[in-house]
Amino acid sequence: MSGSVLDRIQKLQFSDRPAAEALALSFIRETILPDAEQVELRPLAVSLNSFNGFVTLKKGRRLFFKTHTEPDNVIGEYYHAAALAEAGYPVLRPLYSSTEAGRQLLVYEVIDDPSVFDIAWAIETGDESLLDELTQAQNAADDQLMRIYEATLAAESAETHAQAPVHQLFYHRLAGGRFSRFYGPLPGESGDDVTMITPLGETSMAAVRQVQWEINGRVYAETLDSLIVCALDRLRPDQAGPAITGHGDAHNGNVFLRREGGRPWLMYFDPAFAGRHDPLLDLAKPLFHNVFAMWMYFPQVKRDATHIRVEDRGGLWRVEHDYALHPVREMFFRSKVERVLLPTLQLLREHGLLRADWRAYLKSALFCCPLLTMNLADSSRFPPEISLLGLAMAVEMGAESAGERSLLDQTLDDIEQALG
């Protein structure tokens, strides 16, 4: 079995769950638990590149499992859970693990705690009773994260840094097969074009990647292709620089809210991309997915709640939309920026490890999140309006806004001023 089987199970769970469960049972038996008897998958909105569920053993014991699907693997081994625990992360430790690329699987005791993803979505859709408790837990977790960054920060060689699993989420998705499958050949390369459907109709992706953008009155000079070229250069794995011990993919689906000890606290889970890597890469996934990405998880819901239109002004796409952040998303953003991002940049500067292009580096990583987590050209998943919104988000993350500043750019402006 290989990563292609994991990818098939991940996709099949949403259309033919019994068939997916049969495949998953065979994979689990072969990989790690030969006495597995039954598998129950849990298709979830947050499971964009993963699947999880319960496995029952022959003696009746019921366990929880999760695996991450990542075609085009470049990294050889994943799931460095022990390194996270040693660094001080409150991380759920697996009972059994297979960390080989293409066969990665972790098995845990059954988890009853709710994920922060589920709690935040419940808050966003009307139940705000847990907002104060979640805010308290998030602030405490970010304070703890900053302490771990301080304790584990060190310079890393280019050779060592290149092996960090986190690069699979950014550079390797961009330079590898995922980008070309989604959107056609990389700039300067040859290959078959693909099309995507936006409110303007079916459009060549090669043409979409060349348009200029104006989003809610803000002008962006860079095209998607120029952002791609810059990201390929900035995000090269083989760069010497700072490294911390980090989770790498700490979006809210990989964090649980626990209440043991009389206080709410957050526990990390599924350290598929954990390791030693640049702290700015470590922050990219939670900064984007926990704040800006609900359209990605609930495309139909957000399409119905969002007004979005686009005009093609001869190669300039003028986009207007009213997609707004719920207060719980603003809370995640403020907590991560104020308690981790700004202090991290100050820490890097104090140690002489702050790269001159830190802002562009972070924005290139953020750019990859909406563009490469899912295929925005997949009309079976995304309505045309949400495909357009996803492209606009990618531009906003990666490019600099002219005139009125975007939330991200204004925040980074404020950080630069604070750094002096």
N- to C-terminal distance = 53 Å
Largest sheet: 5 strands, antiparallel
Please tell me what the overall shape is: globular
What is the averaged pLDDT score? 93
Strand arrangement within the widest β-sheet reads 1-2-3-5-4
Structural class: alpha+beta
Count of alpha/pi helices: 17
Helix content: 40-55%
Using only CA atoms, what is the Rg? 21 Å
Structural features, described:
The relative contact order is 0.13. This protein is an alpha+beta fold and 420 residues long. A hairpin with a 2-residue loop joins strand 7 (195-198) and strand 8 (201-204). The chain is built from 17 helices and 17 strands. Helix 1 (3-12) packs antiparallel against helix 2 and helix 11 runs antiparallel to helix 14.
Secondary-structure blueprint:
Blueprint lengths: L2 H10 L4 H15 L4 E6 L8 E8 L4 E7 L12 H7 L8 E3 L6 E5 L6 H9 L6 H22 L1 E3 L1 H4 L9 H5 L1 H7 L11 E4 L2 E4 H4 L3 E4 L2 E3 L3 H11 L6 E6 L8 E4 L6 E4 L6 E3 L1 H11 L4 H4 L1 H7 L2 E5 L3 E6 L5 H24 L7 H15 L11 H15 L2 E2 L4 H13 L1
Parallel strand pairs: 9-16
Antiparallel strand pairs: 1-2, 2-3, 3-5, 4-5, 6-11, 7-8, 9-10, 10-17, 11-14, 12-13, 15-16
